[in-house]
Amino acid sequence: MIISGAVAFLILGPRPEGIEGSLDVSGLPLLNAVLNGITTVLLLIGFILIRQHKRQLHKNIMLSAFGTSAAFLMSYVVYHWFKSGPKLYTGDWITLYYFILISHIFLAAIIVPLALITLYRGWNDQIGKHRKIAKITLPIWLYVSVTGVIIYVMLY
């Protein structure tokens, strides 16, 4: 939760004078959507690989998924640090959009510690504990990565 709190502070907290707009971050929403899409594909591949009992490939793919998620998080923070406020939704599906957005934000905050714990347990071969938490982590992580792409499509 410390990481989630730090991210919230970086996005919502006070910024130095003149920082807004000092860096062109207009391309980062597309990059974020691409990173979320790649994460989704990697998570699905990782799930298939573990079902096929290919543990080492599963580990490599899941570490890659974590890497693309971490890259997304860094890009997301940079975007919100240099840009004021979120882009407003102007479409016809406002109730659906806000349901997706609010659930995405809430679960994105939860997925950070869940993914870290899951990866730690897998990395240290705590297979029983890893399996138990992975059954919770995977669907949430998939939801967050898929809805990240959906939010981008709805906004842009």
Notes on the protein architecture:
This protein is mainly alpha-helical. It is 78% helix and 0% strand. The chain is built from five helices and no strands. The longest helix is centred in the C-terminal third of the chain and has 30 residues, at 94-123. The radius of gyration is 17 Å and the shape is globular. The chain starts with a helix and ends with a helix.
Concise description?
With 156 residues, the protein is mostly helical. It has helices at 2-12, 28-51, 55-82, 94-123, 127-155. It is globular and about 50 Å long.
The tally of domains stands at 1
Low-confidence residue ranges: none
Let me know the largest β-sheet. Answer: none
Q: What is the average of the pLDDT values?
A: 91
Order of helices and strands: HHHHH
What secondary-structure arrangement, pairings included, does this model have?
Layout: H1 2-12, H2 28-51, H3 55-82, H4 94-123, H5 127-155
Task: Quickly list its features.
single chain, 156 residues, mainly alpha, 78% helix, 0% strand
